[in-house]
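Hi all, long-time lurker, first post. I run a small reading group and we've been trying to get comfortable going from sequence to structure in the token notation. Rather than ask abstract questions, I figured I'd post a concrete chain and ask someone more experienced to write out its structure so we can walk through it together at our next meeting. Sequence below, copied exactly:
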Amino acid sequence: MSKPVELTPLMKQYFSIKDKYPGALLLFRVGDFYETFLEDAIKTSKVLGIVLTKRSNGSASSVELAGFPHHSLEVYLPKLVKAGYRVAICDQLEDPKQAKGIVQRGVTELVTPGLSFSDAVLDRKCNNYLASIFFGKDILGISFLDLSTGEFLLAEGDKSYIEKLLQGFAPSEVVFNKKQQSLWNGFSKDGFHAYALEDWVFQFDYTYGLLNSHFGTSSLKGFSIDHYSTGIIAAGVILHYLTETEHKEIKHINAISKLEEHQYVWLDQFTIKALELIAPQQLGGTALIEILDRTTTPMGARLLKKWLLFPLKEVLPIQERLAMVAYIVEHTELEALLAGYLKQIGDLERLISKVAVGRINPREMLTLKRALEQIHPIKEALAHTALPLFQTLSEKLHSCHHLVENIHNKLQENPPILTNQGGMIKSDVNDRLDELNTLIYNGKDYLLQLQQKESQRTHIPSLKISYNRVFGYYLEVPNAHKEKVPTDWIRKQTLANAERYITEELKHYEENIVHAAEQAHHLEQQLYQALVHDAISFIPRIQQNAKNIAQLDCYVSFAQQARKQGYTKPMVDDSMTLDLKGNRHPVIEQRLPIGTTYTPNDVQLDQEQQQIMVITGPNMAGKSALLRQVALTVLMAQMGSFVPASSAHIGIVDKIFTRVGASDNLAQGESTFMMEMTETASIMHNLSNRSLILMDEIGRGTSTYDGISIAWALVEYLHNHPRYKAKTLFATHYHELNELSKELLRVKNFNVAVQEISGKILFLHKLIPGGSEHSFGIHVAQMAGMPATILDRATQVLHHLSEAGGKMHPKSMAGSLPQMQYQLSLFEENETCNHFKSFLDKIDVNTLTPVEALLKLNEIKNVLKKKENNHKS
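-- Answer (accepted) --
Happy to help. Here is the structure in token form:
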């Protein structure tokens, strides 16, 4: 940043602070405004849409300036952060009235995309993660922190696992080693906001020490992470980054957990996208999360999203979740009771984090109290259920009676948002505060009594006491009575029709009331801070409450959805069976037109009889939807939800792979076929014995012969794999693949039924055994509105190829086809045409009346009709 040649004291201070935070926009507090200068001002004015001005800097040239009122920080700060900027907030550290020379200033917070407490920045249904990544020799370490909730995680693994975690957690910001810039550039393809830190920060001893110091431990064994060396480096770097960004009050970060790869179902980025778990692929589409999420608390919504992206693959915890959902489904009165309490809780998780950093305002403190008031009745309701799992959950909830009573007894029922406005604390809490408030709020009575007393003493009936900012309180006497003014009054101002005076008593009262307001506000702030400090001791218990309430919210959400949509409880076990009866697509069935029902289907896969289902059928018949609904059903079951099926037996699946639909990556120079092959190769390299593989129209992006060959080889590979028998649904338009079932015992043919009526087709969307012999492609083209000329020609070509038995070589195909007549002759040389030509030559159009023309046209029509009848006979 270029600096003016000559600097004022203010600008010298600005640059000394700015130099400490390179790359950050500096919001510099000057009086009641936050100002930005030079390049920062240009950027700020563009992002915020505020006026960019210039002002003189002493004897130096003018500098660019853009600013906004300090009370608008919550409006403007989120816009700067969402634009990807790091923002350093520089506040005045002393009262300007008491400052000697220039006011002392300093950065109180560095806000970044991954570090924020602002409700305007945060999405209530999503976590806001900061990630740190470290590239070890063979293993990568990664850590995630949501500062707004205190959730702190670490993991380590190979490149594909870390990529998966980044995809799932979707951090708002990533920090990495400056010396590993090239590694990060080759690793990141999703455009994360990233920030490079110096290499010395990424040292094991330093980061290990930071973690121990923060948690007050001598070893990390208690967290079971002591052997995660690269993960420890990544986690320690996050703590360093918090210090660097002036985030020092972090008592709510009181634990760190490890992410174990073996605990969760593997979902690669292609599968998450193809199954539309979080976001639809098409504009106006619907993601699965939108269907499943009926939570009422923000922390419940955040947890449900995590459950969806990281389904379990251990039987017992899945069965426990399903048991709790089933109990709520069976006890509607419990569901209604819990739903009512949950609606009043709000974001307990983020509220207690604001307590930890001292940023909770009085109204939020009141919201915290109301949230905690719901815990006790929920605790009681769960304790009286017949399900031990709910009884255990009840025992984990803390009513926090002391804190609830403390807030109730001290805080006003409708307090202001800001703590410096007064009116926060109830009466009878502090005697001195009550005295001050009496002086402040009973001032009108005192002034009225003083006015009456002086009026009687001086016999001035029109005497009045008033106030202005220049003179403060004063007595005003009309000129007609100024001779009656006592000698102890002090004249302050002469007006045209009156004189204004002050008295020692009035002056003393003014001093008292001004000081009383200042003292009352200061005392209220002290009492409020004491209340916040009391709440800090409850952080671990309230965080535990938030965690358990979030889980309960998810169970209630699942139960409500199950009852409304007619879902059933799946049987989940360690078997190798996948048996779905009456299975439906959870999203499509809720988006069908009113009065339309979704056609259910049965799907059965195992490792002995039916490992691979080859599914044929025309486009639009529902093959892709069928594949997706099977995967979504398995996912829902393993996250603990009931499923859209009349019955479901699901042996644990550890990986779900999809190659469904086009995934063009043309912006990066990759064709549809290249992406298809890349994704397919990834599946083949990572499959396991418990994998579920969904493949749709593999090979369609290349020539027919190449496509069939690749699809054929894939089915053979999956069937004959020496170690794994991955359950597979293989949808294809290559009917030749039906021949595989004759050679491969565990390959079975199915087709999505279509009925042909009078040359038109009816999609039945029903899966039936056996292969399809016809793709009905021309019929589908007709339904899409293809011109009749093209349809006729396509039918002609198809008929010709069918007669050849599919044996025609591509090079000889064009020469053997009958030529299409693109230029139609109006009068071909035949008897009918000659007859009409002779008929028209005899007509004089110039003398023909309208009625005669109609008669001639009718005559032509009759002749044509007669010839048509003769032809049919």
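A couple of things your group might point at:
DSSP finds 29 helices and 27 strands in the chain.
The chain has six domains: 9-111, 130-263, 294-400+538-565, 431-530, 571-783, 831-872.
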